[in-house]
Design brief:
Blueprint lengths: L2 E3 L1 H11 L11 H12 L2 E2 L9 H7 L7 H10 L3 E5 L3 E5 L3 H23 L3 H15 L20 H13 L3 E7 L2 E6 L6 H5 L4 H16 L1 E2 L1 H8 L4 H10 L5 E6 L20 E6 L2 H6 L8 E3 L10 H8 L21 E5 L2 E11 L4 E9 L7 H18 L3 E3 L5 E2 L6
Parallel strand pairs: 1-8, 13-14, 13-15
Antiparallel strand pairs: 2-4, 3-4, 5-6, 7-9, 8-9, 10-11, 11-12, 12-13
Length: 415
């Protein structure tokens, strides 16, 4: 019989597997941070510092004793992490590097074709020249390639030098050894990953098995598409083939309940589609679901790039939360705002907030806050939101919170 996972239990599973059921005020320590990142799989990077950069907000949402200097140490000093691409630029545990090395080799012919079309047939000469330059002088930033003075020109302009650096990084010859501000410092890959991980090789079958198995462990349940998209290492067809090869000792089938608003039946009036989905799950899903810890009751602001948020369709189906980031939407067409953060309370997404840290003013300023339909602003909830704003101000390094009463806005969905 297919196991049924009710919607609330499914939400709690996702939040637990992605580290959001931990006690957020308990001292994390460097060892705890390492365990958390391995549990999550990766942490996405983003340059925008509206409150703090995405990578720091993601980790801080799980433990308020986290500090941005901790991540820098793990990446640059201890080499516990390396930086490369999942679905976007991310920091990834170095123990996973052999699987990215396999991806580099598999994807290199297509990357060479694309870069050749983009940069022209001479791009390989530029790449070879850059490799020699880095061997001679050490790490390079893209701005180090900018033309300076009136002397002889280098063989690259800034843009094609940057493209060559990116090609060499994306295909495994270079690594991001450190960042200065948010500027990448490229170095030889062997200097950015500990030798045991750098030297290990895996077969293609091992690569696919690892990518599918570890994705499903972190998702709890999902489709072949969900599994393939988690690391963005393999294709959906490869995930489907892997699933077909697995026995019941490795995976199970579950029926997962989708989010339903009060008074809405199993079939949606709008789409007439069944909300529940039959999906694949890790073999021990029943045991994990039975032993779920309680979630913290506090309100937490999530980065738009938090792993719980990033798959917008899965988010809407499980949490009933329709979210998009509107930084690329013209201002006149924005529904919410330029950079708006979802608010998590327990296992529910209760609203979203437009806030920004103004360091010159030493303040975290709230521009607008919208609660989801049916969410009431009780005194206790207001206090929990206020406590989270104080925590966010602390993360941003500002001393005050400006939260005007007129920042509460009517939800457009209720208009």
């Amino acid at each position: 019989m297919t196991q049924l996972i009710p919607n609330q239990e499914a939400r709690r599973l996702i939040l637990h597997l992605q580290g959001l059921s931990q006690t957020p005020h308990r001292a994390l320590g460097m060892d705890g941070l390492k365990q958390l990142i391995v549990q999550m799989g990766f942490v996405q990077l983003d340059s925008i510092q509206w409150v703090e950069r995405a990578q720091h907000m993601i980790l801080y949402a799980r433990n308020q004793t986290y500090r941005p200097t901790h991540l820098k140490k793990l990446l640059e000093k201890e080499q516990f992490l390396f930086e490369n691409w999942t679905h976007d630029a991310s920091v990834i545990p170095s123990q996973f590097y052999p699987y990215w090395r396999h991806k580099f080799q598999r994807d290199k012919p297509e990357m060479e074709r694309r870069f050749s079309n983009w940069q022209g047939p001479g791009y390989r000469d530029r790449c070879d020249s850059l490799m020699e330059k880095i061997k001679a002088v050490g790490g390079l930033r893209s701005r180090d390639l900018a033309e300076t003075g009136s002397g002889p020109r280098e063989m690259w302009q800034w843009h094609d030098g940057k493209a060559a650096l990116e090609f060499l990084w994306r295909t495994g010859d270079l690594c991001i050894k450190q960042r200065e501000g948010f500027q990448k410092v490229y170095h030889l890959a062997a200097l950015g990953v500990p030798e045991p991980h750098f030297e290990t090789r895996v077969s293609h079958d091992e690569f696919v098995d690892w990518a599918c198995r570890t994705a499903l462990n972190r998702l709890g349940f999902g489709s072949a598409g969900d599994i393939a998209r988690f690391w963005d290492l393999i294709s959906i067809s490869e995930a489907n083939a892997w699933l077909e090869d697995q026995g019941s000792e490795n995976i199970s089938r579950v029926m997962v309940g989708g989010h339903r608003k009060r008074g809405v039946r199993k079939r949606s009036k709008k789409s007439d589609k069944i909300d529940d989905k039959e999906l694949y799950a890790r073999a021990d899903i029943a045991s994990v679901a039975t032993n779920l810890p309680d979630l913290p009751k506090r309100v937490r602001a999530l980065s738009p790039f938090d792993p719980v948020i990033r798959d917008r369709k899965r988010l809407a189906w499980l949490f009933g939360f329709d979210y998009r980031i509107e930084i690329y939407v013209p201002e006149a067409k924005r529904i919410w705002g330029y950079y708006v953060f979802p608010l998590l309370e327990g296992d529910r997404l209760i609203g979203r907030i437009d806030m920004r840290a103004h360091r010159k003013n030493d303040a975290l300023e709230v521009k607008a806050l919208w609660l989801e339909p049916g969410v009431r602003l009780s005194d206790a909830r207001r206090d929990r939101i206020g406590a989270e704003l104080v925590r966010q101000a602390r993360l941003a390094g500002v001393g005050n919170v400006t939260w005007p009463e007129d920042s509460f806005k009517a939800n457009p969905a209720e208009a």
